[in-house]
Amino acid sequence: FLPRLFRVKSLMQGHGLEWQRTKYSPIQQKILKFMEMVTAHTNQHLIMCSAVQVKYFKDTYKKDSITIPTAVHLPSSAGKNDNAVLEKFGLQSRKYFLFMARLVQDKNPDYLIEGFKACQYGNMKLVIAGSNDSNPEYVKKLHEISAGNDNIVFTGAIYGDEKDAILRNAYVFCIPSTIEGLSIVLLEAMSYKLPVIASDIDANHELLDDNAIWVKPENIEDISNAIEYCLCNQELIENYTLNNYRKVVEYYTWDKVAKKYVEYLKGLGVN
Fold this sequence. Notes:
By secondary structure, the chain is of the alpha/beta class. It is 47% helix and 13% strand.
């Protein structure tokens, strides 16, 4: 309320409905929901990273907002250190499914691991790339349910050339989340022309349209069936990738998104 008190323009950007996340206790969720209500009513201007959130703020708070999404840089066509990175983690190009995110419950890496273990995956591996220093017990649980299976590989958090190589050489990207705002790593996977197994939630549909293999959130059987489908239908799932790549190029590069920010701020009288 302070900017408005002094007649300073205020702008809030929303990246997700945080109170929905399972990592928070019921009391924390109520506090976050209250904070959301306060910010919705005290900020003059609202930007959301997805159309799903724009609709939510309109339906819940009768507040108009616009969508300016998150963005990514398009990857280079080849990596200098791909072989060294793959060798480091015991991987082969196009021989692994990839999960890359914070290791938290609402991203559902545990369901993905169980789904992978339950299917006929042959010589394929599942790579779990990510970390969570704030909840080591959950990370420990993931390692425990993967114990004894050499086809499940934990890389920890990866950045730079390692992240680039792991994305470029994956067979399929997996995003089985229960909740998403507008996933940056999903945009990255789309920019690398990876087929996608995705949870059937609005935020994922907004990016992928129909160009994914859809699974019900928190459903081990669905995930297992999707993995086997990908293994048996390589040509079909790769047909999705070009449309996804084109969508990133058209709407989600930093050049396009930065231009939207500049135009919006100019419309507010900001020079």
